[in-house]
Amino acid sequence: MALKAEHIPIQPSVTRSSDKVGAGELLVDACEIFISMIFRAREVKKIKQNYAGSLQADDAWLVISGSQLKKNQKLLPFLMVSAPRWNVHAVIIASPVFSVKEKLGIETASLSRFSDLWNLSVIDVSTKQPVWSGISTRTRTKRVNVTLSPGAYRVVVRLYESTGDLDSPVLTLDSDRALPARRLDHDNNEFYSKMSMDNYAFYRRLNLFPIRLLKYRRYLKQDLLKRIFLPAADPGTQFEFGYLGFGKELDVRFDDFDFSKFRVYFCFYNEASFPVFWCAVEHKDFRYRAKTAAGCYLLRILSLEC
Asked: Record's superkingdom (predicted)?
């Protein structure tokens, strides 16, 4: 079942401490943003080329985990330019790239055994955009069949509130080929709290551009900010995001909000885009103060409704 882009009818009230910017600070920000843009433009292509030579075997699924980051030293730089808004709340797995002419079958039973709340996307490799999406609360059968145009694709799955052993879903390609299930090694995202920031200066220069722009979001086109900042291909999810200066406070109120129909997750990232603090939001009032560093916050609001 394909899911159309939908707006979850939730408008949390978000209040940030006032960030009054003087002329000197504006000049410094403009210079740092410009330097970051130039640095990023130079480094992104190099990082992606380096990672391309270290891709997994054809039948191997990738799990975002501490062991994978240790095994492949080129994975962290790649993720920092391709998916820098880390989803620390979910175990994330990605299939190898595969080709189909028309049909893709996905066995979802193994996902439901591992987690009651998951979503998956079929990504067109050529455009890097999702062409089909499904979430656990809408995908009731143990198998889904997707009709696709001829091309190369990969499947990305996010599994929330997970327990036990994780097996990748069996993928059937055009009814005559299959990627078999694999037992996947994962660490339930414990590695995020131990993630090294030895190269903080490098990653800050790489990711400062989109993060610092959020400081001036009231003057910029919101569609542009969403394209350069938000995670891609995350079905059934609404985002609230913004910049938070050092020592500043964020106050979020969920008035008239039914937590039985949604899951809400919060993460604060420093200006290098390393996750600093994260939690599930379970009450109508939520506050966070940026005690250790300036950076950006991201609220993920997942619908549980069928």
From this structure: Bacteria
- Integer angstrom CA distances of residue 38 from 33, 48, 274, 275: 9, 16, 21, 24
User: What are the residue boundaries of the structural domains of the chain, listed by start?
Assistant: 13-43+192-303, 44-191
**Separation of alpha carbons 162 and 260, rounded Å:** 18
